[in-house]
Amino acid sequence: MPESGTKSPRERYRAQVRGEIKERAWEQIATAGASALSLNAIAKQLGMSGPALYRYYAGRDELITELVRDAYQSLADAIRAAFDAGADVTGLAHEWRRWALEDPHRYLLVFGTPIPGYRAPDDVTAIASRIMAVLIDAFAAHTFESPATPFDAHLDSHRQWAADHPAPSAVLHRALTLWTRLHGILSLEVAGHFAGMGFDPALLFAAELDALLGH
Amino acid sequence: MPESGTKSPRERYRAQVRGEIKERAWEQIATAGASALSLNAIAKQLGMSGPALYRYYAGRDELITELVRDAYQSLADAIRAAFDAGADVTGLAHEWRRWALEDPHRYLLVFGTPIPGYRAPDDVTAIASRIMAVLIDAFAAHTFESPATPFDAHLDSHRQWAADHPAPSAVLHRALTLWTRLHGILSLEVAGHFAGMGFDPALLFAAELDALLGH
DNA sequence: ATCGATCGGTTACAAGTTATCACGAAGACT
DNA sequence: AGTCTTCGTGATAACTTGTAACCGATCGAT
């Protein structure tokens, strides 16, 4: 977030307070989860009492929406940076996992059970498309001798989720499959469903990655 | 739940009210999600006011815990029934999906973001083991020529999650993979993350199933 | 059959939450 | 300086979960 230079001091102060609010919100989410987020507690932590916070965010939903957007953007940045640094699909997948485990509640806020009231803002789907585009680019380097499945044919005419990326539909399929398979493992791991099972989730993750990338 | 015959009328009444409470709770969860569950509203719907509900459930956590247990048991029964009716792995997977889509919030209550305070009761992991055992039995009918992965070796010494099922670790691996891959798709679908993407989730589901069962 | 303890339900209350309103103080701009 | 927007305040409303005290009906035992 550079380039916040030419602004009125009022707006700079406002932006800074909004940032502090989000910071405290993330602290609360990291410890107690998103549904335990308390605007009152945040305000108290910042030294101001109760309704002052409503000058900065219209309500709980708006704050959460912005947190979701930030989290999405954070994932997009991490994936993009890894790709620009030369990471292949395996590298992107491990970066994805690192990002998920770094803050489990953040991952669940983005990909987990949706908050009852709120609806995803439109720009979030744009960020998602950008993430998928990076995955597709990474897969485009590989070559696959994959038999065309019925789903591949279906994808040929349904590719707006990938920002109409010109890659062949088999590649789109791979990218989509990478997403769903990684999410299957990561969401279960992050939600603690592997807890009492004994095996090492990292090994399962690696095995799934190997299986996808041509056994 | 047969064999609830020889009970004191007090206990029968109590059991019936507890059942009605859970019914209303499921209605609320199905419409507004688990985090919007209101004990007051449930009590009001049942004609009794507020704190009377605490005679039946010690608090929110205990009610949710029982709902989670019931949902788990419901899935276990559905899978078990399909298996006993002769369903193969494909049939079990579709039954799993049918169960998930039948009540999305129920699926998310079990496999989604965990509720902040509550912890999964011990018997839930036992039910999970029973489900996994059915999956493993279904896979045991298949034969695989799979190269032993490092994860397979790891699973050989970490199989208590499958109730120490005697199947070879490659089969355990398949069953575990089925779970995580199906959950990856189903959780994203149920949480609405495929909403604006355009493609048909059912075809993606079928494609993943085909890919897993030996392309 | 009467007596007594337990159970079920009630109202009242405490401590929280989100959110709105009306007001005062302080900075910013003309 | 004067005005005007913004920020923070306390008061208030309508909620929530959960506890405490009380009262009546029912069930079990004598």
UniProtKB/TrEMBL annotation, chains A, B:
Transmembrane segments: none
GO MF annotation, one: DNA-binding transcription factor activity
Domain HTH tetR-type residue range list: 15-75
Keywords: DNA-binding, Transcription, Transcription regulation
Domain of life: Bacteria
Keyword Ribonucleoprotein among record annotations: no
Pfam families the UniProt entry points to: TetR_C_33, TetR_N
SUPFAM superfamilies: Homeodomain-like (SSF46689), Tetracyclin repressor-like, C-terminal domain (SSF48498)
DNA-binding region per Swiss-Prot/TrEMBL record: 38-57
Record's protein name: TetR/AcrR family transcriptional regulator
Organism of this sequence: Streptomyces reniochalinae
